[in-house]
Amino acid sequence: MANARRGEISIDLGGAPRRLCLTLGALAELEDAFACGDLIALAERFQSGRLSARDIVKIIGCGLRGAGENLRDEDVARMQGPEGLGGFVRAAADLIAATFGEAAPPARPPGPQGA
């Protein structure tokens, strides 16, 4: 069972329920893979909303390894999920959101004084 407080999510992959978690080591692996110098640059890359299939395989692979699975990205690329491509995209987005948090809504300016 995934623990949301630790940034974990669950997904059905390869016919089995699996946990994913982007630990510090998994995030370091993603920084290297995406040539991002730090976590801020990595978060900004994810916020662009443009991810390739290769990116999704890497994110899910890092999440699986962060949760203790010993799988290579090549293994992840061959897996099938019950929801097809949409399930993989959703899992990558959910994992990123669980790790970095949801984008905070813009703050409202204070109302006029005395109103």
Describe the protein in words.
This protein is mostly helical and 115 residues long. The protein has helices at 24-33, 39-47, 53-66, 73-78, 84-100, and strands at 8-13, 16-21. The protein has 5 helices and 2 strands; from the N terminus they run E-E-H-H-H-H-H. The protein is globular. The termini are far apart. The model is unreliable at 104-111 (pLDDT under 50).
Main attributes of the structure:
mainly alpha, two-stranded antiparallel ribbon, 2 strands, globular
Topology, element by element:
Elements: E1 8-13, E2 16-21, H1 24-33, H2 39-47, H3 53-66, H4 73-78, H5 84-100
Antiparallel strand pairs: 1-2
Helix pairs in contact: 1-3, 3-5
Order of strands in the sheet with most strands? 1-2
| Biggest sheet overview | 2 strands, antiparallel
Query: Ranges with pLDDT <50 over ≥5 residues?
Result: 104-111
Count of DSSP strands: 2
- Count of domains: 1
Identify the overall geometry.
globular
The whole-number mean of residue pLDDT values reads 86
Secondary structure: helix percent = 40-55%
Spell out the helices and strands N to C.
EEHHHHH
Rg (C-alpha, Å): 16 Å
| DSSP summary: helix tally | 5
N→C terminal distance: 49 Å
Strand content: 5-15%
Q: Structural class, from secondary structure content?
A: mainly alpha
